[in-house]
Here is the input.
Amino acid sequence: MAVKSKMGIENIKCFRCEKLGHIAAECAELFPAATAAEHQARIARYVERWINHEITEYQKRAFITAENEMWHSVPARSST
Here is the structure.
């Protein structure tokens, strides 16, 4: 008996954050982090993925640049 593969959205892994259930275009990491700790954790996760050869150096730089641009674009945070 053949086993059917489940290809529903719940089984799709996001390239950006590596969590299941969504694609990168719908990732919560496309929005500014709510706290400084979340912002730093995102950056640390990108660096870890690069160290583990899961993403290229170019991708790491692009992800971190985008993260920093989002974080610093929020008016209340630009002075911190």
